[in-house]
Amino acid sequence: MSELEANNIRGEIKRITKEILRLAAERRSLSLKIGDIKSKLGLEVLDRRIEAELLNDSLKYAEELGLDRDFTRRLISLLISDSVKAQEEKVDRTKEVGLREIFYMALELEKSGRKVIRLEIGEPDFTAPIDVIQETCNALREGKSRYLSSYGIIELRRGIAERINTIYGTDFKPENVLVTGGGVMAIYISIQVLSSLGDEVIVPEPAWPLYRQIAEHLGRRYVPLRTSLEDKWTLRNGMLQENVTDSSKLLIINYPNNPTGRALSLHELKNLVEEAHECGLTIISDEVYSQYYFHDSYAPSIVQILDSGYVLVGSFSKMWGMTGYRIGYLIGEKEFIDKAAYILGLMITCIPEFIQRAALKALQDDEYVKKNIEETKKRINYILNMLSRNSLIKVYPSDGTFYLFPKIDLPAFNSSDFALNLLKEHSVAVAPGSGFGPYRQHIRLSAVKPIEEIKIGLEKLNQAISLLQ
Length: 469
Ligand SMILES: Cc1ncc(COP(=O)(O)O)c(C=O)c1O
What we know:
With 469 residues, this protein is an alpha/beta fold. The chain is 51% helix and 11% strand. It has helices spanning 2-41, 48-65, 69-91, 99-111, 130-141, 154-168, 182-194, 210-217, 239-243, 266-278, 334-348, 353-363, 366-387, 415-426, 451-467, and strands spanning 117-118, 177-180, 200-205, 221-226, 248-253, 282-286, 310-315, 328-331, 393-394, 403-404, 407-408, 428-429, 431-432, 443-446.
């Protein structure tokens, strides 16, 4: 009797589940209709006010029904994501060529024997200092190639903590540091530890595309906050508050910024961080370009402002030219570091010791970093000077990094088509702005080639832009 009863109930559950799916399909087709209207009116797909209204209404109703708040939040987030995805597919049917495609095409052209001027690359042209290379070889010879702790070797964790403490007057201990496989892994793990499925990750744009890719890969909702060159790439006052909902968990900031070269003054950083804190957001501060700062030795850091509620992402890639070593770090509270180390252990067990030894050696060579950043600054100034000769180009003058993100002042400019054509016809590679958000009028230029090469590249660029008029 009771087994029969259970089967009847199971049948009822099946029916209800199907009904939920039918309603989801109906919901989706309504979303598509709205997508059509938005497309006709030229409106953005994302409408945070409507989303917040829907979420709040649903939470109230769920409470009346006795449903769990967190469950409701996730369910609504999933439904909203589905609508946004459906609408984005409708609105944006054209396939853009991204940085990756330009990068591989440039490589292919080089392989075929063509000289290509590579201004699209996101890594410096210098490699690790010679003593770092030697240390790597020595460490390998000494057998520093065994499994070890997921946290990283204590000497390196201490070295990183001390470096930050010396620069910013903080008091980090080795237990606040996790050695990671570059900044990428640090960001991946941070998002995983600090948020849950369906949570929102807020990112000011233009932004490094991996924030979106990682967040979405982990089933989080990526929420961009658009800034513009006209506003000096600054988040409008109150913009964060307007965009935060009950599902917002993280804010990722990246100053000095890839791709704009914008850094925040300590005052600006403080305002932004405090606003984020008031909104209940945890902050991931990606400071991999911290020393690429043209107004002082180091860019302002989140560690100067907050004691908790954030994690810092650092890397050896850009500063010491160690991109292929794949080594970076996370700084945060011990509880966070413990959780992050656990995940790192599941991914890769540990970062190879010979690479950690190399990084430890690199920490001792600040002069090398300074010399390379001086050279980068010269190149950036050179590019700025060349760009200023073209009245169609507008650009933020840069506070740091090795990037510039100029805007081509032609309404129909399409960075993707332009980058493709520039590469094919003029053998110059640049990164299309559309890879960093809806910035079709922009391109990203990297100052990672000697000035003589940059000069030829920019002459061709200016020429190609003039032909568009
Ligand atoms: C803003 C930003 N963050 C993090 C990274 C990751 O660098 P890595 O993983 O080599 O440390 C990059 C690399 O391009 C970057 O531009």
